[in-house]
Design a protein that fits this description.
Elements: E1 2-5, E2 16-19, E3 29-39, H1 41-48, E4 62-70, E5 82-86, E6 95-99, E7 103-105, H2 112-132, E8 140-143, H3 149-160, E9 164-169, H4 172-181, E10 185-188, H5 195-202, E11 208-213, H6 220-225, E12 227-235, H7 249-253, E13 258-260, H8 271-287, E14 294-299, H9 303-311, E15 318-322
Parallel strand pairs: 8-9, 8-11, 9-10, 11-12, 12-13, 14-15
Antiparallel strand pairs: 1-2, 3-4, 3-6, 3-15, 4-5, 5-7
Length: about 325
């Protein structure tokens, strides 16, 4: 089978097309023929070694496809079942052996590509809006990179829950996408020197109830300064680089605010929690109340180009690799 391999940590150039054996299912596993794999910033962290893994590795934490083999001890899945997974490395390949406990069923109304595009980011957005800061009607939240895959999902969920979104973007075209997803206000940070000041202006000086920040180093200070008293800063990613160490006294000075760095692994720690979260996300997609924007589809062998586009912020919505 064809796959992408990383033999040394580094830039996109270390993503190398390779050929390997089709895996056989180990105990508790199923082998899935991958129809589409999602491209996410966590893949960049694995590629660069920011999140260390044993080398060589096949990146990719999200995919969808059909079961082609199951281990003898597996009775909950059958060959031919449509499934998807997130938070299990190895998706940049034509086939992957995946623990059955990490696989979720894909509804008939949801395509393989859509399932691969929404599961990881959709469950992360669900975690942020339902657990990290449960959005209440009337809340105002700041969503950075509001035209990206995560930003568009967050904006839709916050709006559906009765919240008001202030989004940040870099271009007029991205502003249109964010507003189309439901953002009430959009700040083009390329044209505004003081993002936090603009947020204060848009909230009558109060600040926002929560900030969902997946950008990291370049936005952290503005995020902290945008919060209302006792607000929540959810730092869920670091697309622009890691945030330097933070003196906790800054949280007091900002108004007794909360800072958290969540990971979805801890919010899908049990099988029941994983299924509940995945079913809610995929169910919203199936009924048409959560829309997934797929920006680009790349052949598997062009994983390097997909990472270059992702890191260069040349895309909106979700990127997929198609084996």
């Amino acid at each position: 089978m064809h796959l992408i391999q990383v033999s040394e940590f580094g830039g996109p150039e270390v993503l190398t097309p390779a050929v390997g054996e089709v895996p056989q299912p180990g105990p508790g596993q199923a082998v899935v023929q991958v129809a589409a794999a999602g491209v996410n910033f966590i893949d960049v962290y694995h590629r660069t070694g920011r999140y260390p893994n044993q080398l060589p590795l096949t990146p990719g934490m999200e995919a969808a496809g059909r079961v082609v083999a199951v281990a003898p001890d597996v009775d909950s899945l059958a060959v031919g079942d449509r499934v998807a997974w997130a938070n299990q490395i190895g998706a940049y390949a034509e086939y992957a052996a995946v623990p059955v406990e990490r696989l979720v069923p894909v509804p008939d109304a949801v395509s393989d590509e859509t399932a691969a595009a929404v599961l990881l980011q959709g469950m992360t957005a669900h975690m942020l809006t339902h657990d990290i800061h449960h959005v209440r009607s009337g809340d105002t939240v700041l969503v950075h990179a509001a035209a990206g895959g995560m930003g568009l999902l967050l904006t839709q969920l916050v709006t559906a829950m009765g919240g008001r979104v202030i989004g940040t973007v870099s271009t007029v075209a991205k502003e249109e996408l964010a507003r189309g997803a439901g953002a009430a206000e959009v700040i083009r940070y390329s044209e505004v020197d003081d993002v936090a000041g603009k947020v204060r202006e848009l909230t009558d000086g109060l600040g926002v109830d929560a900030v969902y920040d997946g950008v990291g180093a370049s936005t952290f200070d503005a995020s902290l300064a945008s919060l209302r008293r006792r607000g929540v800063l959810a730092l869920y990613g670091a697309a622009s680089g890691p945030v330097p160490p933070v003196d906790p006294i800054r949280l007091m000075q900002a108004g007794s605010v909360w800072l958290t760095r969540p990971t979805m692994v801890d919010y899908t720690a049990t099988r029941a929690e994983l299924l509940e979260r995945a079913e809610d996300v995929l169910g919203r997609v199936a009924e048409g109340t959560l829309h997934v924007a797929i920006s680009e589809r790349y052949p598997l062998a062009e994983a390097r180009r997909a990472h270059e586009d992702l890191e260069g912020r040349r895309t909106t919505g979700k990127l997929l690799l198609i084996p």
